[in-house]
Amino acid sequence: MPDLPCPALRAAAILALALAGPLHTAARAQAPDAPALYQQHCASCHGAQRTGLMGPALLPESLERTRPAEVLRVIREGRQATQMAGYAGQLSGAEIQALADWVRTPVVPAPRWGEADIRASRIATPLPADEPVKPKWDADPMNLFVVVEGGDHHVSLLDGDRFTVITRFASRYALHGGPKFTPDGRYVFFGSRDGWITKYDLWRLQVVAEVRAGLNMRNVAVSGDGRWVMAANYLPHSLALFDADLNLVKTYEAATLDGKASSRVSAVYDAAPRNSFVVALKDIPELWEISYDKQAAPIYDGLVHDYKMGEAIAKPGYLGVRRTPLSEPLDDFFFDQGYRHVLGATRPQAGKSEAASAQVVNLDVRRKIADLPIAGMPHLGSGITFAWRGTTVLASPNLGGTGVDVIDMRSWKNLRTIPTPGAGFFMRSHENTPYAWTDSMMSKDAKDRLTIIDKRTLEPVAEVREPGKTLAHIEFTRDGRYALASVWEMDGALIVYDAATFREVKRLPMAKPVGKYNVWNKITRSEGTSH
For residues 499, 502, 504 and 508, what is the CA-based torsion angle, rounded to 10 degrees? Predict the structure, then answer.
């Protein structure tokens, strides 16, 4: 206590401390013990370290896209169609709030998930030897849609000709990054935010294998030959490589060459013409390429006078990491149609860059060759390319602006910024339609509309609306005749539009259908879809 000159003031201060001490102690005693509450009510389903068991992981990394109010609601009311019961009748409001706050704090010490954990997590269901190898349904296997319903964590398989649901099944919690198909279109791989990879047989309508690649995962990629699956993890800082049956082959620590710094992995995508996976790191300014070509050239890290003379010690190129140094890390990226260039965006980082930026990286010369003149916050992972007046252009929605930027992919210069009602997240087209569709779902006032752009004139020509709802994520049928959009609401729907007249054809009720993916468009890498 400070030395107070007045005896009366000093006496008053001593009395105040004496009175406040017991009250302060009592208040602390009455405060809910969140760790104890968690162990009593949550640990059996979500794990002692919150890494997930029967229920999903409850880590800050897993909950970063879940609003605090939603966490409170789920604890209080539970979640329909799951074993998550509501605790409003058992816990006080203060206890529920304490739990909601606590699951958003880091686990100390940080949980680990190594190769032994990955291998032990694998679950497989062998195929019956006597079952005919043919689909259990009558539909075009190349015109199926996999629809991820985030509202209640289910997946619907949709016939893209009749627009009827073939089956609907439960998924892991919070699928993320888009499903990936094998080259024959038979199998699809889902990646969940809490690290699970699920291999599903679209013909037999059955899960055939699952494995947990990490504790918090960004996305998965499937190799162009269908032999490999790679997972990008936020936690731990790693990549995990599997064979097509989800047996672990190896893990890669996402770290600098000297091992002094590690990183979350932003994304991994397959570059099929190059027989490689390309990887972006969120915290380290490097782009990685990992070749699955057994004839891949050796890798020389650092400076080499002449690699042809073998002056340095090389590492095998097959399944090895080929590093491209960058000035800024990439958060997401997009390939040109030839897969020679990566077009990547950098998000603002605390204490580093003040604004988002975008750059072009040449994978052959392994360096940045241009800055992309895109302001705001481009969402290049959902960009599209198409032919325009003798050149090829990239069109990208923008999370931080009200427009679609169109970039000439020869000069890397901005040709036009097409006005839209608000900031958008997804953009799609198809080679058989002259129109591209983009949403404004990041805008409070314009999230209920889709803008339709004429690719010939680079001008908006129409819009469709779903007043008061969030309308987003277009995907086309195999032939490009119909465009399917999502009403991103719990009582949402899949809306089928005629791609030429923009008129609604059919509506299927669904629980927040966050994304839909056409088998043919994905495996043929249609110019109007993300890769």
Answer: 50
Both tokens of 58, joined, read 């409850």
Q: Look at residue 68 and give its three-state secondary structure.
A: helix
* Max Cα distance, the chain (Å): 96
Q: How many helices (H) and strands (E) does the chain have?
A: 8, 33
pLDDT tens, residue order, the chain (531 aa): 444 444 444 444 444 444 455 544 444 457 899 888 888 899 888 888 898 877 888 888 778 778 888 888 889 888 776 778 888 888 888 988 888 888 888 888 888 999 999 999 999 998 888 777 889 999 999 999 999 999 989 999 999 999 999 999 999 988 987 999 999 999 999 999 999 999 999 999 999 999 999 999 999 999 999 999 999 999 999 999 999 999 999 999 999 999 999 999 999 999 999 999 999 999 999 999 999 999 999 998 865 555 555 556 789 999 999 999 998 999 889 898 899 999 988 876 555 555 557 899 999 999 999 998 887 777 888 889 999 999 999 999 888 778 999 999 999 999 999 999 999 999 999 999 999 999 999 999 999 999 999 999 999 999 999 999 999 999 999 999 999 999 999 999 999 999 999 999 999 999 999 999 999 999 999 888 876
Distance CA 236, CA 230 (A): 14
C-alpha dihedral sign at 520, 524, 528, 531: positive
Tokens standing for residue 393: 């252009």
How many angstroms separate the CA atoms of 173 and 193, rounded? 7
**SS3 of the chain: helix, strand, coil, percent, to 5:** 15, 35, 45
C-beta of residue 286 within 8 angstroms of C-beta of residue 265: no
pTM: 0.86
What's 192's DSSP letter?
A: B
The CATH homologous superfamily for domain 34-103 is Cytochrome c-like domain (1.10.760.10)
Q: Which helix (H) or strand (E) holds 99?
A: helix 93-102
For 473, the enclosing helix (H) or strand (E) is strand 471-476
391-396 and 384-388 as β-strands: parallel, antiparallel, unpaired?
Answer: antiparallel
Residue 32 neighbours by CB under 8 Å, 6+ apart: 92, 94, 95, 97, 98, 99
**b/e map of 107-129 (b: 16 or more CB within 10 Å)?**
beeebebeeebbeebbeeeeeee
